[in-house]
Amino acid sequence: MSWFESQWDAWAPERRTVPWITIGQTEETLSIDQALSAIKSHRETLYGAGLGRGQRVLLAVSNPIQFITAWFAIIDIGAVAVPVSPLAPPAEWDRIHATIRLSAAILDDTQASIADDRAFTIIRMRQDGRIEAPGLVSPCANPYGSGGVVLFTSGSTGEPKPVGLSLGVLMHAAQDVVNAHQLSPSDIGYCPLPLFHVNAEVVGVLSSLVAQSSLVVDNGLSRTGFWDLIEKVGATWINLVPTLITLLLKDPEATPKKTQRIRFIRSASAPLPDSVRTGAETRFGIPLVQSYGISEAGGPVTVESQRHLFGDRGGVGRPWGVSVKILPHSSGHGEIAVQGPRVMDPQWGPNAWIQARMSDGWYRTGDLGHFDSPGLLHVDGRVKDVINRGGEQIFPGEIEDIFLTHPKVRECAVIGHPNPVLGEEVVAVVATDDLDAIESELRQLAETYLSPFKRPIRYLAIDMLPKNRTGKILREALRHAWQSA
Fold it and tell me: How many Å separate Cα 411 from the centre of its chain?
C-alpha cells in the first residue's frame, strides 16, 4: 500500500464517493475513490517512463483537479514535484532546469506542443485527465533523498530561490493547520489561490486530506457572484490573501448572504492592514483569522487560531508548530527567525543556500517584526522594503494602512525613491480613478496621522498594483516604474 493509499484508507467508506475536491466555477468534482484511481494510473505511467525516487518533475497544469492528482502521483512514487504557473513560458522551465536539473515536465497539451528540444522529457496531460509519456526519461544524476516538492520563492535579494520540502515536512505543516483551525469532516473550505504555491498546497489540499473534509478550489477569485458561490458550495471557511480581501471590501456589491455558514476567513501571505480587517469584519460579519507563514517552513509560522479568537487579538497570532524568535538587525529593528522540524532541512534537496541565512540554528526570514506583551507576533515589514530616509527607518505598511481608509483608494503601496541627500524619499503609489481629486485629502490624512518624515512627498496614480499570483505586491516593479516616470 502506498503512502497516499493509506491516507485514503482512513476515510469513512460513506465519504469516499462524495466530492472531496470541487472546482467552484465549473462544478467539476473529484471523490476520494476517483482521486485514488487517477493517481494509480499516473503512477503506472510515471514508473513506466523510468521516474523514481528523488527525481524532479516540473508540473504546469491549469485544471486544478488534474494538477492535484498529478501532484500526488509524483510525490507518491518518491519523486519531487516542482509546481509552476501553467502560464509560465518555456524560458522559465529552462531556468528551473538549470538550477535543479529536471528529469521531466508534465504539461497541458497546449504547452507541450511548444516544448520541443528541451533537455528534459515532456509528459502530456490530456484533456481527459490521463498523462502520456513518450518514452523513458533521462536518469537523474543527483536524486534527492525522498519525495517532496521544490518551490521557487523570492529571497531578500529578490532572486528566485529553490525551497525543498520533504513529504514529512508537508504533512507536519498540514496537521498544524488542522489543529490550529479545528478542521473536521463537516468543514468545506474555499481556496481560489494558485496551486503552485505552498499556501494552497498545504493549507488547502493537504489539510483537507488530513481533516477528511471537502475543498472547493478555483483559478483565482471573481468578485462577481463571489458570495453566491460561497453559499452554493456551503463553504465553512475561506482561504484568502489581503489583496483579495481588500477587493471584496471595496466592492459595494460584494455582500455575504444571510444564510452563509462561514466560521472564519483565513488571511495569509502578506500583512493584513488593520483598516481592512476592521472594515471586513464589520461589513461581512465574519471573523478574520490572520496567520504568518513562509515557504521555508512549509507554510504557517504563527496563527491566530480559533481558540485565540476569544482571547487576545492582534498581529498575526502566536507561534504554531515552530519556534519563533526576534533577532537583532542592523536596521535597529528585530528580524523574525524560526526554528523547528518544519523549517527546511539544508541537507535535503536544493536547500544548501539557507546556510547563509542561519544564525545559531535559527533561520532568518528577512521579515522585521516584534512580539507584543500578550505574545502575539506583529510583522513590521520586509528588510528590503524598509525605507531609509536620512537615517530614519520607515515601514511602508504603516502609511498604506492609513491611505486605505480612504473610500476612493482601492489599493496602495509605499516605496522608497533614491534621494542624493537623504538616501531615500517616500512615494505613495495609489490605485484610484481620480488622484487629482483626492490627493489633497491623502496629504491631509498623512498630516493628521504621520510624523513629517513619514509623509510621502509625491503621489503616483495607477489602475492596479502589480502583484504575483499569490497576491503579493511587486514593489521592485513599482520602484522601476516610478523611476521611469
Answer: 19
The 3-state DSSP composition of the chain as helix, strand, coil percent (nearest 5) reads 35, 30, 40
* CATH class of domain segment(s) 386-484: alpha beta
- Extract the C-alpha cell encoding 263: 466560521
Q: Which helix (H) or strand (E) holds 181?
A: helix 167-181
Pairing of strands 104-108, 80-83: unpaired
How many Å apart are CA 292 and CA 87, to the nearest integer?
A: 27
- Give tens-digit pLDDT for 23-40: 999 999 999 999 999 999
Residue 157 reports pLDDT greater than 50: no
* CA–CA gap between residue 115 and residue 105 (Å, rounded): 10
Q: Which class in CATH covers the domain with range 28-146?
A: alpha beta
User: Domain map of the chain by residue range?
Assistant: 28-146, 166-382, 386-484
CATH code of domain 166-382:
3.40.50.12780
Please give the Cα distance from 325 to 338 (Å, whole number).
Answer: 6
Please determine whether the domains at 28-146 and 166-382 fall in the same fold group of CATH. yes
Q: Are strands 56-60 and 19-23 parallel, antiparallel or unpaired?
A: unpaired
- Model-level pTM? 0.86
Q: For residue 325, what is the enclosing H or E element?
A: strand 323-328
